[in-house]
Specification:
Number of domains: 1
CATH superfamily: NAD(P)-binding Rossmann-like Domain
Order of helices and strands: EHEHEHEHHEHEEHEEEHEEHEEHH
Bound molecules: nicotinamide-adenine-dinucleotide, uridine-diphosphate-N-acetylglucosamine
Helix content: 40-55%
Number of helices: 11
CATH class: Alpha Beta
Strand content: 15-25%
Shape: globular
């Protein structure tokens, strides 16, 4: 079975490519490298000991994408390509809507033209907006609090409409909580551009000496230690969930949605401490005001995925920190 991976040079897409190859799938990667490096593809090929067909293509480029579908038979698509920086999306909404929404429309049209109607989509827990309570189930009301989130929400709506209009489509909406971790080889991992916005890459860069200290955003949340609580999920568990979703889609047409999380939350201070343990260092931090827009707690009820996909996260916090540290310490400047 051949899977087209859009955004396959990126953090999650490269791990998905590797896991698929390890399980004997064929993959074809499409990425415009706007937020990634071709070296990630080379390393996936090295780890899998198989060549990885790669096309440097923007998914909005219909002719180029059509050409990709002509070069190899494709059975299904895992769609990771998208811009994902929340703050940037507030300043550049049109760029986000064009890249994420227009890109997905072109992808769906080209898929349809080639008779490919199976799609696994990277959604996000951001589609729950500011959730009224935790844990979050898939039935919670959906909303968006920034243009990035709105792009994900709109793509979900579009896919629901498409499946209603053309019931032969098979679509899985996978709502990720906080992906972290790296392949245990330490050869591929998350390599954010500039100063990281997300907690774990920030801590990792402090640990490796690229940044002086972590700012803990908010110490007065109604949580066990006053700092924000999130559901950090190992990227390898996450991509395994995509493969289970593909199997589910093979059983019949329709649209399904799943939370991909661990079902438990850790606070910012717990993350700093766990990372320090993994790296064998004390991570320097300072207490800082809340970051606007942050919820106190966000963690999943992942029982639907367990029930219907037979999937649950098996890697814990210490695995996650150890694997991020191996990646970061072996590649202090990422792929550069
Ligand atoms: P990433 O930036 O590392 O990967 C995305 C990849 O898509 C990059 O390689 C980028 O170059 C490529 N890309 C972007 N626009 C493209 C376009 N128009 N054409 C072709 N390629 C394009 O991000 P990631 O963390 O791997 O995230 C993958 C997906 O998962 C994204 O859609 C993101 O919104 C979603 N997601 C990520 C997280 C997270 O915390 N990382 C959480 C929830 C959802
Ligand atoms: C953020 C995005 C979310 C996106 C996700 C993955 C926001 C509001 N939400 O989620 O849409 O899907 O990233 O890309 O941006 N923290 C610190 N210090 C830091 C960084 C973070 O204390 O330097 C805290 C935050 O306040 C939060 C926790 O760490 O409590 C996790 O933050 P982060 O990694 O940015 O993820 P989210 O905010 O959950």
């Amino acid at each position: 079975m051949a899977i087209l991976i859009t955004g396959g040079a990126g953090y999650i897409g490269s791990h998905a490519a590797l896991e698929l190859l390890r399980r004997g799938f064929d993959v074809v990667v499409v990425d415009n490298l706007s937020n990634s490096h071709e070296a990630a593809i080379d390393r996936v090929a090295e780890l899998a000991a198989r060549p990885v067909p790669f096309h440097r293509v923007d998914i909005r480029d219909r002719a180029a994408l059509d050409q990709v579908f002509r070069t190899a038979p494709i059975d299904a698509v895992m769609h990771f390509a998208g811009l994902k920086a929340v703050g940037e999306s507030v300043g550049q909404p049109l760029r986000y809507y064009d890249n994420n929404i227009s890109g997905t429309i072109v992808l769906l049209e080209v898929m349809k033209q080639h008779g490919v109607r199976t799609l696994v989509f990277s959604s996000s827990a951001t589609v729950y907006g500011d959730p009224a309570s935790v844990p979050i189930t898939e039935d919670f009301p959906l909303s968006a609090v920034n243009p990035y989130g709105r792009s994900k929400l709109f793509i979900e709506e579009m896919l629901r409409d498409l499946c209603r209009a053309e019931p032969e489509w098979r679509v899985a909406l996978l709502r990720y909580f906080n992906p972290s971790g790296a392949d245990p080889s330490g050869r591929i991992g998350e390599d954010p551009n500039g100063i990281p916005n997300n907690l774990v890459p920030f801590i990792a860069q402090v640990a490796v000496g690229r940044l002086p200290e972590v700012a803990v955003f908010g110490t007065d949340y109604p949580t066990r230690d006053g700092t924000g609580v999130r559901d950090y999920i190992h990227v390898v568990d996450l991509v395994v969930g995509h493969i289970n979703a593909l199997e589910k889609l093979a059983a019949g047409p329709g649209l399904v949605s799943y939370n991909l999380g661990t079902g438990r939350g850790y606070s910012v201070l717990e993350m700093i401490e766990a990372f320090g343990r993994a790296a064998g260092k004390t991570i320097k931090y300072r207490l800082a005001p809340r970051r606007p827009g942050d919820a106190a707690e966000c963690w999943s009820d992942a029982s639907r995925a367990e029930r219907e996909l037979g999937w649950r996260a098996t890697r814990g916090l210490d695995d996650m920190c150890r694997d991020v540290w191996r990646w970061q310490s072996n590649n202090p400047n990422g792929y550069a």
